[in-house]
Amino acid sequence: MLDINLIRDNPALVAEKLARKGFEVDFGAFLERDAERRRQIAATEQLKAEKNKTSARIPILKKEKQDVAPLLARMKAIGEEIKAGDEQIDALDKIQQSFLEALPNLPADDVVAGGKENNQVVASGNEKPAFAFSPRHHVDLCEQLGLIDYRRGAQLGGNGFWVYRGLGARLEWALLNFFMEEHLADGYEMILPPHILTWQCGYTAGQFPKFKDDVFQLRRDDGEGFSHFILPTAETALVNLHRDEILDESQLPLRYFAYTPCYRKEAGSYRAEERGMIRGHQFNKIEMFQYVKPDQSEAALQELVGKAARLVEKLGLHYRVSKLAAGDCSASMRKTYDIEVWIPSMNDYKEVSSASDAGDYQARRGNMRFRSQETGKPVYVHTLNASGLATSRIFPAIVEQFQQADGSVVIPEILRKWLGGLAQIGP
Asked: For residue 274, what pLDDT is reported?
């Protein structure tokens, strides 16, 4: 959530920054209601002060045998005015809150305006594979090698689900083991969070209320609304670990990673070129997360980008790193880098990690702060996240980039220790 004082002090600047995200807003009516709300608060507080003062006088006047009927009548009138004022303030509060909740985060100053057409490739790694034969699609390779059972996955869960089998299941688990080993070596604390979360978790992450229909909801018995949902990413859990807490400055930065399956509704139809594991309703992911002081934010983001890129680099996959334009960043994020792997069958790059800086946007929604050692006052933390990594696109990239003419697939050397030293999966 944005700092309301930014809007009060410089609405034109805030509107200009939001426009870089493609979000058009006029703060005129909002600021008028805000001024009315503050006037009403001041007037109501004045009435409450008068009521308290009068309440204290009445017993004294009664002792002095003075007539307090006029004061009692005034007290009744004040009480009615206070009730009406509080109701008006409450109504204005709800309107103001709804307006603020709908505003996306402001892009960082160095993030260019526009949509994905303005994304900038800032780095790449490992050589793009060249084939002396006609390369196969990962779906065909996975079926021929017995790694993935798409038919039975659809039979069990419907379209967008698959079953890992045999060496496919072991390769998937080897990837997760590799990622976890790397994060532990870097000093990140491992978390295994619940997969069912409360509404407040989605709100703090910035996904609710606007994107509430993008998750699998657990409906209440009465059929009205929902109180819980299945997590779409471990970020939604990790960002709530310190909700409503005031941390000690010496605790920061806090670095976590979590393994969870991710559950996505992925509204809309699947494109033909995205068949297989490129887009699904359930996939495995390791998520990295940091809570930092504001002046640590940029360094933390670069650390997360470097860590995600290094994982792809060590797997030997060709990849690139793109800095997203403002309109391609998610609503909660002020700056994002995507780490993208090359998928030969699609002749395109697909994101396997988004490393993002939310600034204090999520912290304001979740009331997450630290106490400054210098001032003794609470300050909002900055939150950052990055996939480290999602397997559902890494797996197809391995199968397609490392395929051989005979239909076999070379296993990245760094994963072989979890596969009994196996170097290649043959047909």
From this structure: 63
